[in-house]
Amino acid sequence: MILKKRIQELLRHLSVGMYEREEIVAVSFLGALSGQNTFLYGPPGTAKSLISRRIACGFEEPSYFECLMNRFSTPEEVFGPVSIKELREDRYVRKTEGYLPRAEFAFLDEIWKSSPAILNALLTLINERRFRNGDQIEDAPLKALIAASNETPDDNQGLDALYDRFIVRLMVPPIAQSDHFNNLLNSPPTEARVKVPVELVVKQAEWDSWRRDIQSSVRLSDETLSIIHMIRDALQDQHETLNVYVSDRRWQRAAMLMKAAAFFNDRKETNHSDALLLQHCLWTTNENREAVAKIVATAVQQSGFEGDADLAALDRTKDACDKEIHQELYHSEDLYDTVEHAGKPYFQAEVPAFNSLRSGQIRSILIPCEKLKSSEAFNPLAPQGAVLQDVSCKFDGQGVCEITLDQGYASRRVVKATPSVLFHKGDKITGVNKRLVKALTQQVLELKNELETVRDQAQARVEAYRLSMASTFVPEVKTELAYQGVLGHVERLNLRVLDCERLLSLCQ
Prior knowledge:
By secondary structure, this protein is of the alpha/beta class. It has four domains: 3-217, Rossmann fold (3-Layer(aba) Sandwich); 220-303; 335-423, no CATH class; 434-507. It has helices spanning 3-14, 22-33, 48-57, 75-79, 84-88, 116-128, 160-164, 178-185, 204-217, 222-237, 239-242, 248-263, 272-275, 286-302, 311-329, 434-469, 476-507, and strands at residues 38-41, 64-68, 105-109, 130-133, 136-139, 144-149, 168-171, 335-336, 339-341, 344-352, 362-368, 391-395, 401-408, 411-417, 421-423. A five-stranded parallel sheet has the order 2-3-6-1-7, covered by helices on one side. The chain has a three-stranded antiparallel sheet with strand order 9-10-11, with no helix packed on it. Strand 9 (339-341) and strand 10 form a beta hairpin. Helix 2 (22-33) crosses helix 3, helix 10 crosses helix 14 (286-302) and helix 14 (286-302) crosses helix 17. The chain is elongated, with a radius of gyration of 37 Å. The model has no long low-confidence stretch (mean pLDDT 90).
C-alpha cells in the first residue's frame, strides 16, 4: 500500500463518528506525524479531548497522558510526584512514569488556566522534548502534545513563548449541518478509542524514519516560497490592524508541516495545497483567525507557477516596446493647424469686424497656443503682432475659445472658435522609417514567442498539477481554490500574449 493511501485509510478509521471533524483530525494527525504541537480552540463539548485520544490510536501502543488543568493544578499532577526515597537521599527527583515526561501523546485541557509553575516547565519540555528531573535531563518521548481551551492567552499573561510552540492551531466549532447534528443525536456516545487494522498503525521505527525522510527528501517548491513571501508581506502590511506576529521559529516549523503534507501525499516537493495549511499556523486570536485565513487563501489563489522565465523582466520589456511604439509611430498629443509669429505658435481664428464701419467684414486674430490649457482671460494679437485690447479671449477647458468683441457704446459680442486639429492624439504618424517599423515588429515578435513558450509550459503542467494538489489533509473545496489560482496564472500569461498581438497590430 502506497503511503498516501495508507494514511487516508488510517484517517478514515480515526474519524469514524467524528461529524465535521475530518479536517481537524487529519491536520492534528499530520502535526503528530511531523512532531508538531497542536492547539484546539473552541467551546466546551466539541470533542477536543476525543480528537486527541483518536490521534493516539493511530500509533502502535502509545503511552498516553491526559489532564484537565485549572488554577489549583500542581506540578505533581502533570510531571509526577516527588520520590520520597530519593528525597531521603537529599535528591529532588520526580517519579515520572505514567505522567507527561514519559508520555508519547498528551492532552492538556484548559491549558491557559494552569499555574505559572506548570506552564514554565512545559516550555522546555514541548519545545526540546526534554525534562529536567532534579539534576538530570531526561529525554521525553513525546510525539505530540495537544492542548485545548475555549480562550487564547491574553497579551499580559507572559504566555507568548509557550503559545508560539503550538504550531498547529485549529478551531473546533459545534456541529453546523442539520443532518450531521441529527446523526449525532441518533448515535450512541462516540468511543474514544477505535480499533485500527494493524497494517495501518504507525510503528515507532516508521515514525522515526519518516521524520528523517521529510527533512532530507522533500523541498519547498518555488511556488510555495512565493506564497509564503506574499503572506508574510500581507501580514506585515496589516500588522496594525491584525496584530499578528509570526516568529522565525513558527515559519520554520510551519514549513516542516508543509513538507510533511507533501511527503504523506507521496510528493517530493510542496505545492499550493500544502501552502493552504498555513491558515492553521499563523493566527493568534479568534478575532484575526478569519482574516489570516483570507490572506492565505488570497496568496494561494494569486500565485501561479514559478518557472525559469523572469516574468517581471518580460513585462518590463513589453511595457518598453509599448512606449517606444507609441512614441515613434503615433502622435502623443493633438497636432493643431498653427501659424508662427515671433518664434511662437498661434491658432488663427476669423471673427467679425470690430466696428459698424466695417460691418460684415471678417478679420483674423492670433491666439497663443500656450493658452489652450489655461482658464485665464487674455488679449489676442492682430496678424501684424499688435495686442488687441478690445478683444478678450478665454478657453473653456474643453478646447473651445470664447472671444468677446468690444464694439463700443457698451455693445459686446461673443463668438466661439475651436482650433483646427490636423492630427489627433493616437493618430499614426505618416512617413515613418520602414526599418524602424520592422525593428519594432521583430522585437515584439520575439517577446510574443517567449511568452507563448512560458504559457504553453504552464498549460502543460496544469492538469498533472491538479491531480498532485489532491491532499489528504486539505478538503477538496480548498484545493479547488488553489487550482483556480493556477488557472488564473495561465490566463494572465495568455493575456500577455494577446497584448503582444495588440502591439503587433499597432506596428502594421
